[in-house]
Amino acid sequence: MELEYYMNEALKQAEIAYELGEIPIGAVITQNGKIISTAYNRRETGKNALYHAELEAIHKACEKLGGWRLWNCELFVTLEPCPMCAGAIVNARIPKVYFGAYDKKNGACGSYMDLMNTENNFRPEVTGGILEDKCSELIKDFFKKLRNS
Fold first, then answer.
1. Residues 42-72 pLDDT 10s
2. Which of 4, 15, 63, 139 is 20 to 30 Å from 131 at the Cα level?
3. Is the pTM of this model over 0.85?
4. What is the pLDDT of residues 68-77, one digit of tens each?
5. Cβ contacts of residue 49 below 8 Å, gap of 6+?
6. Is the dihedral of CA 59, 45, 28, 111 positive or negative?
7. Catalytic residue ranges
8. What are the φ and ψ backbone dihedral angles of 34, each rounded to 5 degrees?
9. Nearest to 40 by CA among 79, 67, 83
């Protein structure tokens, strides 16, 4: 399935974050079936609260496409976006968002809150649970390793 292919690409980004000691979250943005940007969480290594995988991927896609509107793009991310990232997704006008693991403590696409379905003038279509087990397991393994060290 095509969605699983792109989520596996996002998982590869999450694995890079894992190896760097970052919370393993990866993101991929596609346009017309081609990957145009990839990113991973790097808040610790970059020492910046804004360096979430989604924000990094959006930044790269905007640079590549030469504008802030990502009308015909899709975002794949291994964890349900947080409120900050959900706001950026709406502002970038990304029409479709796919995520892997649900985040019941901080997810802003329906788990904890739903910023994608408010009275905004733009409402992305969101699908969660793509390769959910793989995405969840990577995060659980990271925190288990962190607790044990």
1. 999 999 999 999 999 999 999 999 999 999 9
2. 63
3. yes
4. 999 999 999 9
5. 43
6. negative
7. 54
8. -115, 140
9. 79
